[in-house]
Specification:
It contains 11 helices and 2 strands; from the N terminus they run βααααβααααααα. With 271 residues, it is an all-alpha fold. A two-stranded antiparallel ribbon has the order 1-2.
Length: 271
């Protein structure tokens, strides 16, 4: 289930607030106004957009909005709940046969689990199931990579366009050394474009791409656990053995918590 991820907007907001605080605390609001330079913004943003248009095709550009939205969403992955599900499916399959699992799938929302269990029900060989599901994981990983690539490239291009703006400012300054009034604006362009490019890259684009990569790795991890669960159910593994096998993917903290919960339930039962 996906829900809003507030850490992304909070992190970006806090970053900009810290920058503003550093500027204002050093030079007051007048110092902050000095950091607003329209031509510098135009060079960085305009150049960045131009570079992305050259680098990517229309299809990639259209997906940018969706990719950015994904950084503001979070999907809960409850590994313990997933393990309990496969323990239940294993018990049902051993007791009543694999065909009875079709009814269980009506309550399963994850299409990857549904596909894996249906392949098992159809009697597909474990090696073939493994290959099919891993091929789907590879395809998903490739889609995610191509999706976040535009964000990664934006993180690479932003500082470069900041440097281009710096070069423009320095050239303008050197061309007008005889006129002292032009030195200030030219130097502002030279420095602020680098500042804007660095901030966009290190506070927005690179962290966003990192979050997308983390989300992909988490999803791959969960799907690998699902594959092990499906193969275990199809091969008729003992539910307790399958649960122990899948529990190896749990962190020690979660294992300890489940042991405590189990101990509490046993105590209540004995009482």
């Amino acid at each position: 289930m996906k829900r809003r991820d507030f850490l992304t907007p909070i992190g970006i907001t806090v970053g900009f607030l810290m920058i503003m605080f550093g500027i204002v605390s050093s030079g007051g609001m007048g110092g902050f106004v000095g950091f607003l330079q329209g031509s510098s913004v135009l060079i960085v943003i305009g150049g960045l957009l131009a570079a992305l248009l050259v680098n990517f095709n229309v299809k990639h550009i259209k997906t940018t909005k969706h990719v950015i939205q994904e950084t503001f969403r979070h999907e809960d992955h409850d590994l313990a709940e997933l393990i309990d599900l496969f323990e239940h499916l294993s018990e049902r399959a051993r007791r009543e046969g694999l065909l009875t699992l079709e009814n269980e799938l009506e309550e399963v929302d994850d299409p990857f689990i549904r596909k894996g269990v249906l392949l098992a029900i159809d009697g597909i060989e474990p090696e073939v199931i493994h290959d099919i599901l891993n091929a789907e994981i590879d395809a998903m990983e490739d889609r995610h990579y191509r999706g976040r690539l535009i964000i990664e490239k934006a993180g690479e291009y932003a500082p470069s366009w900041g440097m281009i703006g710096t070069l423009i400012g320095l050239i303008l300054m050197l061309q007008n050394l005889e006129d002292p009034t032009t030195l200030g604006p030219s130097m502002a362009i030279a420095l602020l474009t680098t500042f804007y490019g660095s901030v966009l890259a290190n506070l927005v684009f690179i962290p966003m791409a990192g979050k997308l990569e983390t989300k992909t790795n988490e999803e791959i991890f969960m799907k690998q656990v699902i594959i092990e669960g499906v193969i275990g159910v199809q091969s008729g593994q003992n539910p307790r053995i399958l649960k122990e096998k899948l529990s190896a993917f749990l962190s020690n903290k979660v294992k300890d918590k489940k042991e405590e919960e189990k101990g509490s339930e046993d105590s209540v039962y004995e009482a």
